[in-house]
Design brief:
- It is a single chain.
- This protein is mainly β.
- It contains eleven helices and 36 strands.
Length: 683
């Protein structure tokens, strides 16, 4: 015992002391053979100031500025400290507020000793203590001490042996501490844990850390465990809620995804080992087409789970399992180390209850190819998305392309617009269901997109026996031009949920696709309008008689024959604007201009209803005279001004019966007065 004190207590001042001894012959003989005397034969007490204890165990920093009292008996020794300083490195310091060193029986060889210290100060110093080789063998932090900042208050206990026969393997320790305002740099990539309040327990069984803090500005609950041994893997579980702000900060903000996502992450630390299990709960989040057709309201259940693992230098998103209502996706996706999509397989994949399809993804050079095969595909969710958003050349989007590397995104000021750059799509399905019980059969689609715009399209399918075809080629201005043609115009418009009252008809449309907009012309020949309330009302207001003088039916307002419909249109952000639209048939004619705002369920259409169109419009094409008498091309001497406004789902028609009595130019003037005509430039 004396030898240990001589070797380890390297300096200090004995302020005062008292020593007494009572040795008989047996005690003197025992001490001669280096055996301790009886316990009550020695009594020593003293006060020590500015003491220094070094190398309590190999590699442990010295304890300095020790103040306390010493008590020694024949077989025991103890020192109770009132204060001291543990400086593990420059600027890393722990203050000792209470502590005790004790040897309970120095007759045992080697004598067992204990050290108990209560410390508070820099958490970096505790990391240094845990990295001492003798202690590190049992438990060490899975992060660099230089990455730690914060304060700690806790207890350190050490069981060890003293003397020449002391064995390192009998050294046992424990740490029980709490941290405040703790930060850990680069905990996940470049992102740090901050404002953490943690409970730290370390002993020969390993390391356990649990508590709360913030990552990406979001509150988290952390539970970390490291098993026995220097190479024991640290396993961490982090539970947190990822709201819009924290996703923005992390660089994971995705268009169409709002609200809070509850996340549970189980991962080894350091995270670069990458064998990470992630579970996401979307119940408090809303989907508004983050991929076309995926929609969910807040409160509707939704969840996802997957595993992040390494495959060479790439990252594998494995065991994907996503479920939200009828939407389901399972499979695997592979990303490069930069987070760029390389390959993937999703099967099954469905957005609606009846879907049965799978998708293979493969990146070849700069082009990503999507091969989609379905037995039955419900196109309604995707069609609704495209029509509302106006995304005639919407790029395919998918959250897995969001970079999963952990770059610092704090300065991100916009939501991620996830795209695949240049891509090809190869789609086949025997059945594709659209709106209003319309079915396309034997659908095949091949699409090439380069530089964010479609380069080519070949689309084919059938409505019953009638084929439909769509192609994209380059026009004379080298812009993509979409051509659509079918002899089932009514089925096509109903399939798209654009109009449900048309039957039959041959349609041809030419559409110039520009940047964020499209302009085109539409021609439909030889169709019927069935059960259209607006048509019924216009015929009634226009004074058209269904019965001729012989009692034969002139026409049926429930089934109006139309020879042709012509219109120019433009499409931008879900808004369809129509110019110079005309509908004409044997019994009636109709002009129309205005807009449909799909995104906001609004319309505003105005024009003229021309009864007995074939006869009434004869003079409309004569220059000057036609404008004065009939009101312009495609109108008639007698016509009825109308205006259709309100919600697309339930529009309101306004007519002025007096306009039927005002020929040509007078009718136009009357339309401005009564509000049934559009003013130029007013939408």
């Amino acid at each position: 015992m004396r030898v240990w004190f001589v070797e380890h207590v390297t300096s200090g001042i004995l302020k005062h002391a008292r020593l007494s001894g009572d040795f008989d012959a047996a005690a003197i003989t025992a001490m001669r053979y280096e055996r301790p005397p009886p316990d009550d034969s020695v009594q020593a007490d003293g006060e020590i100031i500015d003491g220094v204890v070094e190398n309590v165990i190999p590699g442990l920093a010295p304890i300095t500025a020790i103040n306390g009292v010493l008590h020694v008996t024949g077989r025991t020794a103890s020192f109770k400290a009132r204060s001291g300083t543990f400086e593990t490195a420059s600027g890393r310091r722990l203050s000792l507020s209470e502590g005790q060193f004790a040897i309970a029986d120095n007759a045992i060889k080697p004598p067992p000793a204990t050290l108990d210290i209560r410390l508070n100060g820099d958490v970096e110093a505790v990391a240094d203590i845990l990295n001492v080789p003798t202690i590190k063998e049992y438990a060490s932090l899975p992060v660099e001490a230089s990455n730690l900042k914060g304060r700690l208050d806790g207890k350190f206990h050490l069981d060890f042996e003293v003397g020449d026969l002391a064995r390192d393997e009998n050294t046992k320790f424990s740490v029980d501490a709490t941290t405040t305002d703790l930060s850990v740099e680069h905990l996940i990539g470049k992102e740090k844990l901050e404002s953490a309040a943690l409970h730290v327990v370390a002993n020969p069984n390993g390391l356990r850390v649990d508590g709360s803090g913030k990552i990406y500005g979001a509150p988290i609950m952390l539970d970390l465990q490291r098993a026995f041994g220097d190479k024991g893997v640290a396993q961490a579980q982090v539970n947190f809620t990822f709201d819009d702000a924290s996703r923005q900060r992390a660089g994971f903000a995705i268009e169409g995804l709002t609200g809070s996502i509850a996340a549970s992450v189980k991962t080894p630390l350091p995270i670069e080992e990458l064998n990470t299990d992630i579970e996401l709960d979307f119940t408090r989040a809303a989907f508004e087409n983050p991929i076309p057709g995926l929609v969910k309201t807040v409160g509707t259940p939704g969840k996802a789970s997957f595993k992040l693992v390494r495959r060479g230098e790439n990252i594998l998103i494995d065991q994907i399992n996503f479920e939200s209502g009828a939407s389901v996706a399972q499979g695997v996706i592979e990303l490069s180390k930069e987070g760029v999509l390389q390959s993937g397989k999703l099967s099954p994949l469905r957005l609606s209850q009846g879907d049965d399809m799978k998708i293979d993804i493969l990146k070849n050079g700069d082009v990503t190819k999507f091969t989609i095969r379905g037995a039955n595909v419900d196109a309604r969710p995707m069609l609704g998305t495209i029509i509302r958003a106006g995304a005639l050349h919407q790029r395919p989007t998918n959250p897995p392309n969001a970079k999963t590397n952990t770059s610092d995104k704090k300065n991100t000021s916009h939501k991620a617009s996830v795209s695949f750059g240049d891509f090809d799509v190869d789609f086949k399905s025997p059945i594709v269901t659209g709106h209003n019980k319309q079915i396309l059969s034997n659908v095949e689609l091949k699409l090439e997109s380069r530089g964010g715009a479609p380069r080519s399209l070949a689309f084919g399918g059938s409505f019953g026996q009638e084929k439909i075809a769509a192609t994209i080629s380059r026009n004379q201005n080298n812009l993509p031009q979409l051509e659509i043609a079918t002899h089932e115009a009514g089925s096509l418009l109903s399939f798209l949920d654009l109009y449900r009252k048309m039957e039959s008809g041959e349609i041809s449309a030419t559409i110039q696709i520009g940047q964020d907009r499209a302009d085109g012309s539409l021609k439909i020949h030889d169709f019927y309008v069935k059960g259209e309330p607006m048509m019924r009302q216009l015929m009634a207001q226009g004074g058209s008689s269904r019965i001729d003088e012989r009692g034969n039916a002139r026409f049926d307002p429930e089934s109006v024959e139309v020879g042709q419909l012509l219109a120019d249109f433009s499409w931008n952000a879900g808004r369809l604007s129509i110019q110079e639209g005309v509908l004409s048939g044997p019994a009636i004619g109709l002009t129309f201009d205005g807009f449909f705002d799909m995104a906001h369920d609004r319309l505003d259409i105005a024009g003229a209803y021309v009864p007995a169109y074939a006869l009434n419009s004869l003079l409309s094409n004569i220059p000057v005279l036609g404008v004065l008498i009939s009101g312009g091309q495609h109108e008639g001497i007698f016509a009825l001004n109308y205006r259709l406004t309100g919600a697309i789902s339930s529009p309101v028609i306004t007519v002025n019966p007096l306009s039927a009595l005002a020929p040509g130019l007078m009718r136009k003037i009357l339309g401005v007065i009564d509000g049934t005509a559009h003013m130029p430039g007013v939408q």
